[in-house]
Amino acid sequence: MIKVTDYSSSSDESESSDEDGETVVVLPVFIFLSCSYHSFLSLPVSQAEERRRGGHTESNGFGNHSNHGNLPDLVQQSNSPSATPTSALQELGDMAEFGVGGSKASFTPFVDPRVYQTSPSEDDNENSAAAMFANELLRQEQARLNEARKISVVNVNPTNIRPHSDTPEIRKYKKRFNSEILCAALWGVNLLVGTENGLMLLDRSGQGKVYNLITRRRFLQMDVLEGLNVLVTISGKKNKLRVYYLSWLRNRILHNDPEVEKKQGWITVGELEGCVHYKVVKYERIKFLVIALKNSVEIYAWAPKPYHKFMAFKSFTDLQHRPQLVDLTVEEGQRLKVIYGSSVGFHVIDVDSGNPYDIYIPSHIQSQVTPHAIVVLPKTDGMEMLLCYEDEGVYVNTYGRITKDVVLQWGEMPTSVAYIHSNQIMGWGEKAIEIRSVETGHLDGVFMHKRAQRLKFLCERNDKVFFASVRSGGSSQVFFMTLNRNSMMNW
Q: Where does this protein have compositionally biased stretches of type Low complexity (predicted)?
């Protein structure tokens, strides 16, 4: 059963807390289809290309402050196993940061859907465009595998009891943001929301109140590093890489620490401007920050006390292809390599030598390519990746060799793609949201929208995935899906 909740308050006090007792507003918004045989639209490479050719916690010096009120408490982090890095990694020396870790998130196989407020009377009218799209989406696999479809039942009688169901719950916060939501990050149980016009905190531990933290500043991307007491952002008119101290942001709400209030609440990283994208990568005791700029890629590493900041490590300038998406991998615990996506495909920079080279150029696409995601696959020693672009994804290694003779094929062009730590990848389209196995590309489930609308992935942790409506010039709302932990075993 799919549930949508208008939130005036939330009893979701922790990532594992029960939400019984909440008022649930049920809307007949979309169809959920689960696929028990995993082969839908996973085409051999040759077929896919033929188809396209033919048809188309440490403080920052502020100290630790214990009076947090109802605001985020820092997450306890565990130490990761230590190994002896070599080559470029040895240059970091004392910049290795202790306290890396945090428990790995556990998810169950599901997708995030979109919500539309339609009346319950429309519940029987599922032969609309959304239903037709769903039928077409699964027609090929059903014919070949005689697969049974499971359609979620929308309950038109709201109940306060959490249903015992395999289907994810979808809930909506009542707050409407007046400007477009561009990014978000969890801080404790609460949600920091970045918009075109500022930074806000959505208090998920209390009454759902929204606190304005920073106004008249655009926040394009953000990540909370609670153990370091920092919020990393790309923000401002010049897209600077600015790091805010969480203790300073907390005091913007509580106003209970005059010493913190006197100090500047942020620093810029390397005075960088024109940042396009960044990725925080944790390896052993080191936290890397790899940054894509207009024509270059920069690598910074976190330096602990007495520095307490990201410090420059490597720089790669005058790149032939402008980076739009960037990541960093450590091959076999020894070799650092930057992976980045551009308008022509995907590329690698060997950090030791500084040499760039192509790893995948989709030759069957004549126009510019839109890269969506770079996923370093688990249990491959950092050497194999899933590269998602346009409506496809391919499996390659860091030397450009195709490792799997399949192409991940989305049912439609996604507007947002994200890897979740249940070892799955989700794609948000205007008609549906799909969830697939990151290892094979096979379809695990589909959520159909009743009406076409754009959605944006925000963040995820444990069994919750947050996303927002994308309405340029209009209001946006935050949604989250709870992926029931036991559902993976039931599919």
A: 59-70
C-alpha atoms less than 13 angstroms from C-alpha of 374 in its C-beta half-sphere: 29
Classify the phi-psi angles of 142: left when phi > 0, otherwise alpha if psi is within -120 to 50, otherwise beta.
Answer: alpha
Residue 285 falls within a domain, yes or no?
Answer: no
Residue with tokens 């793609």: 417
Q: What share of the chain is helix, strand, coil (3-state, %, to 5)?
A: 15, 35, 50
Q: How many CA atoms lie within 13 A of 375 on its CB side?
A: 28
Residue written as token pair 């930074």 = 199
Q: What does the DSSP 8-state code read for residue 25?
A: B
Parallel, antiparallel or unpaired: strands 384-389 and 392-397: antiparallel
Q: How many residues does the chain have?
A: 491
pLDDT tens for residues 166-206?
Answer: 566 778 888 899 899 999 999 999 999 999 999 999 998 87
Q: How far apart are CA 179 and CA 186, in angstroms?
A: 20
Distance CA 161, CA 343 (A): 49
Q: How far apart are CA 444 and CA 39, in angstroms?
A: 9
| Cα 72 to chain centroid, rounded | 20
User: Tokens 């940061």 — which residue?
Assistant: 97
Angle at the Cα of 304 (from 298 to 307), degrees rounded to 5? 80
H or E stretch covering 134:
helix 129-145
What sign for the dihedral angle of Cα 91, 95, 101, 107?
A: negative
Round to whole Å and give the CA distance between 455 and 158. 25
Residue pair 227/57 in contact (Cβ under 8 Å)? The answer is yes
Q: What is the pLDDT of residues 334-385, one digit of tens each?
A: 899 999 999 999 999 999 999 999 999 999 998 999 999 999 999 999 999 9
Q: How far apart are the first and last CA of the chain?
A: 14
- Tokens 């510019």 sit at which residue? 368
Helix/strand/coil for 386: strand
Tell me which residue has tokens 């091959």.
331
Q: What is the pTM of this model?
A: 0.72
Query: Nearest 5°: CA angle at 156, between 154 and 160?
Result: 95
> Domain limits at 403?
297-409
- Report the SS3 class of residue 142: helix
Our count of domains for the chain comes to 1
Please check whether residue 359 lies inside any domain of the structure: yes
Provide CB contacts within 8 A for 133, sequence distance 6+: 411, 412, 431, 432, 448
Q: Strand runs (DSSP E) across 101-239, as ranges?
A: 150-151, 169-173, 181-187, 190-195, 198-202, 210-215, 219-225, 230-235
Has residue 308 been placed in a domain?
Answer: yes
Residue 299 DSSP code: E
